[in-house]
Amino acid sequence: MELQGTLKDFSLETIFDLVRNGHKTGRLHLALIALNGAARDVAISFLGGELMTALCGSLHGLDALREASLCEEGSFEFAVDESVANEQPTEALTAETVLEAIRSARAEAGSLGAAFVSTDLPLRHAFPTFDTITISPQEFSLLAVLHDGMTIREAMSASPLSTIDAIRIVRRLLDRGLLTTAHPPALDDPGS
Description:
The structure is a single chain. This protein has 6 helices and 8 strands. It has helices spanning 12-21, 61-69, 95-114, 137-145, 152-158, 163-175, and strands at 3-6, 26-33, 39-47, 50-56, 59-60, 73-80, 123-125, 179-181. Strands 1-6-2-3-4-5 form a 6-stranded antiparallel sheet. The chain has a two-stranded antiparallel sheet with strand order 7-8. A hairpin with a 5-residue loop joins strand 2 (26-33) and strand 3. The chain has 192 residues and is an alpha+beta fold.
């Protein structure tokens, strides 16, 4: 069974159900566009309908599937490939675990995204008056690629983090006062 189409034709869950219910062995390739506009290539292998491996850049397993679940545009192709039987699974990925990871990633992205007025607002570094500022490795990785004037969308795209983690970290840095949004001047503003 070869299967191909777009995410407008089939949802990620529907594609997984078709492969799982058909007890198919092969590889699913997803060429997706993330919420931040970045291209995401996802490779997923199935053995007898069970998910074996999932890769998206440096993300593996459930993290790769969470990243794929946040993409609303793209295409997919499933091809039968018996060599999948020789692969070692990356982690135990039951259908229920996969579907729950997809649902929870979408819910979290929705609630975090609702906190932003727009992902096209430019960001600026801010320097709170704290004596000591402690940041996590994830916060550092995002701050390291961010320069003043970069939009939230651009920061998420430049970050080595998954989309959901980048959204979470930008939100956290804004809440902590380590970043601020620079609202663009109104068109009728005489100072612009």
